[in-house]
């Protein structure tokens, strides 16, 4: 069932944010609205993708994918690739046709860093130095946003890597390539991710109102705490499942499965906020520095990519250290998410658009 992991793993959306900022310019309200629409349409795509992953009969719809050398799972994998190619081609064509971008050469690209050390055509060649050179211009609020972003993604990547595997191993009690339990669990995990995407879309619609009333930093912090609670619930559910006698004998009780699907669904709320709020916060704080949006988004991406590398390299050995399974990685994810939530609530200034009070003399 490898094809499920391929179509459900979210794409690197970071360059899309850079493109969006380049189109919207410095209008922060339009940026916030664009964030919400971005998450909404991502949710629509996720729903379709995860629905595809939860369906195991694509080889019947595209029978030419199944051959003597390619069994049912292989045919479903090939079908997923064909669908990916078709939709990527269509959406890429529509994006190129619709987006009217202003060439970078026609804009004023001067930044404090460039004025000191870069001139003319050397700017593009020294992009990496330019990227790291921006660090010295960052204020404390920007470093706080970057720190919370790193903690946030240390929390997310174990889930994004192991969610369907957790459902197949620890809820359905199966092992890859050993019986049908694991495959059934992975398909149910894909269905849970489809529900997750539905909740993500609903949250995206409400995002602007929530952030306007309570402040983006506060909403981000609360979502991280909710994410930590969901990971804690996954650990509890794994413990309960391991102490029931169905493991190795049959399918899990319906209550265990419903509990796992509810957790997957609730995680759609913090995921929607993760896909939008950090970028809006960093965008509103870098304008005064005179740094380009693309350069600043590149720095924010470092706070996302570095945790991804750490989790990818360390989660396997970390899990084996505690006897295997996905629970140790989810425990680290919960601690990181809780820490990031507390830092966001306590350290990021509230920026809700509340009406000022009338002060009488």
Automatic annotation (TrEMBL):
> Could you list the residue ranges that cross the membrane?
36-59, 79-99, 142-162, 186-206, 218-241, 253-277, 289-310, 330-348
Tell me yes or no: is Magnesium among this UniProt entry's keywords: no
Identify the keywords attached in UniProt to this record, alphabetized.
Answer: Membrane, Sugar transport, Symport, Transmembrane, Transmembrane helix, Transport
Q: Which residues form a coiled coil?
A: none
Keyword presence, Transmembrane? yes
What InterPro entries does the record tag this protein with? MFS_trans_sf
* Associated pathway: Glycan biosynthesis; sucrose metabolism
Q: Where in the cell is it found?
A: Membrane
Q: Name one GO cellular component term.
A: vacuole
A Gene Ontology MF term for this entry? sucrose:proton symporter activity
Membrane topology of the entry: Multi-pass membrane protein
- This protein's source sits in the domain of life called Eukaryota
> Hey, which family's this protein in?
Belongs to the glycoside-pentoside-hexuronide (GPH) cation symporter transporter (TC 2.A.2.4) family.
* PANTHER family assigned to the protein according to its UniProt record, in alphabetical order: SUCROSE TRANSPORT PROTEIN SUC4, SUGAR TRANSPORTER
What is the protein's name according to its record? Major facilitator superfamily (MFS) profile domain-containing protein
